[in-house]
Specification:
Mean pLDDT: 80
Number of strands: 9
Structural class: alpha+beta
CATH class of the largest domain: Alpha Beta
Low-confidence stretches: 291-295
Shape: rod-shaped
Strand content: 15-25%
Radius of gyration: 58 Å
Helix content: 55-70%
Largest sheet: 4 strands, antiparallel
């Protein structure tokens, strides 16, 4: 009975020791086995690993590609036109021992801080050697590749590989942006004023041509009207003369009737004449004075 009481605790201690010596690394991780801060084992493949209990510890790191968003920074290209730039980088731990020595117990968080400084320096170096219009253009692939390569060379000392760097924003600073918009607005207003002036000038030419055409057409119409009126008067006089020559008495009679019609129309007008006036010859007799005299 006393022997079994001693065996069970011993077995429990042995089982606990065996379990504490085991650790598992999945496919998303890498691990280091440390003894008093010194690296004793590197575990980069997924599976079961062993360590010395109480003496050694296991530190795990990400084996996946990680992302890093840099803070916005101002850069000055070759033409001294300041730009605000930020970038997104993707990186991965490739050497656990160098990584541990570089960042210590800070792990991925400490690596992010140091890596951001490296990428920021690479951005300033590359973009500072090109004009701003190249940075602002849509085709920036070569610039981003240069930034990635520069950052990759410096990041190797951290035990990490910079997989990719992408410029996510390249803008003018707020004060420069306002000045640029003001300049663009002034240029558009000047162009609009020029267009309005050219349009007004063209309108004046059109109005002047239209006025000249109206005057010419009106003058020609008046001239043709006068010609037609003169021809009509001549034709009328000819007809009158021809009619008078054929029957002077009938001509005088019709002319008198026309005069009576115009003079004796209704209204408030009054005519004062002597009774023996020649105007009433045809009212007193059906013959003209010349005909009565001939009789």
């Amino acid at each position: 009975m006393n022997r079994s009481a001693l065996i069970l605790p011993a077995l429990a201690v042995i089982v606990a020791g065996v379990l504490s010596s085991l650790f598992i690394v999945d496919e998303r991780e890498k691990a280091l086995v440390l003894q008093f801060g010194q690296v004793k084992q590197v575990k980069e493949t997924p599976g079961l690993g062993f360590k010395i209990p109480l003496i050694q510890e296991v530190v795990k790191y990400e084996d996946r590609i990680l992302g890093l968003q840099t803070q916005p920074l101002e850069v000055t290209p070759l033409d001294d036109r300041r730009l605000v730039v930020d970038a997104f980088a993707r990186w991965r731990i490739v050497n656990l021992i160098d990584f541990r020595e570089a960042v210590g117990a800070g792990g991925e968080d400490a690596a992010q801080v140091r890596l951001e400084r490296i990428i920021t320096a690479a951005i300033r170096e590359v973009l500072g050697g090109v004009p701003s219009n190249r940075v602002l253009s849509e085709d920036r692939t070569s610039l981003m590749n240069q930034i990635r390569d520069n950052a990759r060379r410096q990041a190797l000392s951290l035990g990490v590989d910079v997989v990719d760097v992408r410029l996510t924003r390249t803008d003018l600073p707020e004060q420069n942006l306002a000045a640029t918009f003001a300049r663009m607005r002034a240029e558009r207003e000047r162009e609009a004023a020029d267009e309005r002036a050219r349009g007004e000038e063209a309108a004046q030419r059109v109005r002047a041509a239209a006025d000249r055409t109206v005057i010419e057409l009106t003058s020609d119409a008046r001239r043709q009207a006068e010609v037609t009126r003169g021809e009509a008067d001549a034709e009328r006089n000819r007809i009158y003369a021809e009619a008078f020559g054929k029957d002077p008495e009938f001509f005088a009679f019709t002319r008198s009737l026309t005069s009576y019609e115009k003079a004796l129309q209704g209204g408030n007008s009054s005519i004062v004449m002597q009774p023996d006036s020649t105007f009433f010859d045809y009212l007193r007799s059906d013959k003209a004075p010349a005909a009565r005299t001939g009789e």
